[in-house]
Amino acid sequence: MLKELQEKKALLKKEADASKLERNRLNAEASQFAAKRDELNTKTRTLIDSAQRCKDKRDEYNKLVSENKDKRDRLNEAANSLLAKADQIKRKFRVAGGLSLGELKREIDHLEFRQQTEVISTEKERELVDRIAHLWEEYRKKRLELENNAELKEALEKARKLREEASEFHKELTENADRAQECHEKMLKCFKEADKVRAQADAAHKEFVRAQESADEQHQKYIKMEKELRDYDKIISSLKKRSKEARESREKVDVLKRAEEVYAMFKDGQKLETDDLLLLQRSGLL
Prior knowledge:
There is one protein chain. The chain has helices spanning 2-91, 101-117, 122-147, 150-267, 274-283. The protein is mainly α. The protein has a domain at 35-204. Helix 1 (2-91) packs antiparallel against helix 4, helix 2 (101-117) packs antiparallel against helix 3 and helix 4 (150-267) crosses helix 5 (274-283). The protein is rod-shaped. The relative contact order is 0.12. The model has no long low-confidence stretch (mean pLDDT 85).
């Protein structure tokens, strides 16, 4: 029985050592996955911080775009008011028949086209030439009056300057809008990359949990087998002790039996050897 228990203990010790090695391997694997997860989480936070900075910058540029638009629109509105005032001034210089300078010029162009393309009599052509000459004279006269009109010139000059100023704000608006779009695209790229890295971190965490749970399972098995090994040690130790006591008891019986035989020889007057005398002393018979 003792030999059988010792063999079972040896086999269990081998299994316990294997479980311990597997536990240590899984713990090392879990540590690797934890380190990878932490590294990926740090990278994710860095990407999110970058995305937030891009978002803040984008919002700043969009605010500038809004401000540029308001300034541009106010300037264009003021320029339009001045141009409307200029149109009112121009309407005061309409020719007979209600023609403006633009309408007068179009009429001249129309008559000159007729002169060049239509076949008409000499008298009709002379009338047409006279009409064109008269309209040209009226056109030049009205145009000169308009060009020399101080109020009109002032309105047009102010409108031109306002338009130029509005154009500068529109240019800034476009530049800021482009910068805002660039920041927006960078923000989206960072968020997309952060989502990708976060998914990798989640996968690493799942592997960490799997390895850690497996390591814990192996540890529990190892602890259980260590307890069983201690139980085996107790039983084997007890069996060895009992075997030793039994052996010592048998030896004592044998010694006593021999001592009784020697004592009988002593009583019969037989000569005893020194060893026999020592045996009688140890057995208490002498």
